[in-house]
């Protein structure tokens, strides 16, 4: 059995809250786009497009709010006390609230992704809207190796090049700069570098077909200038 038990630290709580908000912001942005399409179609067909425009504006405002909204003043005071047990292919979660216990159970195969960041495992069960947090210093039973072996195909460590496609095309010396950029830009840059590097390596300056003639011309020009 693998067990994590204890109170989640504030940095992990903040990151989990941000991931959840961004997940919902993506969905509201998609709805905003759909409403905009309906508004255009209604305008073309002579329908009531104003209603769709109003809904699109409201959803866009919600999306922006979710992306930029900070945590409330009471967020840091909230107590996130969890017990996570993994055994026989199942994960059991118990959240100890002030007046009750919230119990959930998930099959390990339904956890689509695991991200290790800042000393905490973020389990996507199955998306960022349903995160399960396993803080490393709260491990009570089992080992990190046993835990990570359960998610070997879906575990990603932040800054791990092996989990990002095409990044092996970059030399090791530039790895630190590459991981500081967003993954999509890193992939694009790696494509450009992979395509241009062979051309640059194979480029050779053409040799001067008549080096002696140019040398004589330069000497003649120099003597004329002295005269």
Structural description of this entry:
12% of the residues are buried. This protein is of the alpha+beta class. Helix 1 packs antiparallel against helix 2 (49-68). Residues 161-189, 196-206 and 222-227 have low confidence and may be disordered. The termini are far apart. The chain is elongated and about 65 Å long. The protein has 6 helices and 9 strands; from the N terminus they run E-H-H-E-E-E-E-E-E-E-H-E-H-H-H. The strands form 2 sheets. A 5-stranded antiparallel sheet has the order 4-3-2-1-8, covered by helices on one side.
What are the salient characteristics of this protein?
227 residues; alpha+beta; five-stranded antiparallel beta sheet; four-stranded mixed beta sheet; disordered C terminus
What is the number of strand segments?
Answer: 9
What is the radius of gyration?
Answer: 29 Å
Give me the oligomer status: single chain
Total of DSSP H or I helical runs spanning 4+ residues: 6
């Amino acid at each position: 059995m693998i067990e994590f038990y204890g109170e989640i630290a504030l940095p992990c709580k903040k990151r989990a809250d941000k991931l959840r908000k961004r997940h919902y912001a993506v969905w509201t942005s998609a709805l905003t786009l759909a409403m905009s399409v309906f508004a255009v179609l209604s305008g073309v067909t002579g329908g009531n497009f104003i209603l769709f425009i109003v809904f699109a504006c409201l959803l866009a405002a919600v999306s922006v709010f979710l992306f930029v909204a900070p945590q409330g003043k009471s967020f840091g005071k909230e107590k996130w006390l969890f017990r996570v047990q993994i055994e026989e292919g199942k994960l059991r979660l118990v959240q100890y609230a002030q007046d009750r216990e919230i119990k959930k159970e998930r099959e390990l195969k339904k956890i689509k992704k695991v991200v290790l960041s800042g000393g905490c495992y973020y389990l996507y069960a199955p998306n960022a809207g349903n995160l399960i947090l396993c803080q490393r210093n709260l491990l009570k039973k089992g080992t990190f190796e046993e835990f990570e072996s359960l998610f070997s195909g879906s575990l990603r460590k932040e800054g791990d090049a092996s989990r990002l496609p095409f990044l092996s095309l970059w030399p090791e010396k530039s790895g630190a700069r590459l991981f500081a950029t967003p993954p999509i830009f890193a992939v694009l840059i790696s494509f450009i570098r992979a395509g241009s590097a062979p051309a640059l390596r194979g480029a050779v300056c053409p040799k001067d077909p008549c080096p002696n003639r140019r040398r004589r011309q330069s000497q003649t020009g120099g003597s004329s200038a002295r005269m």
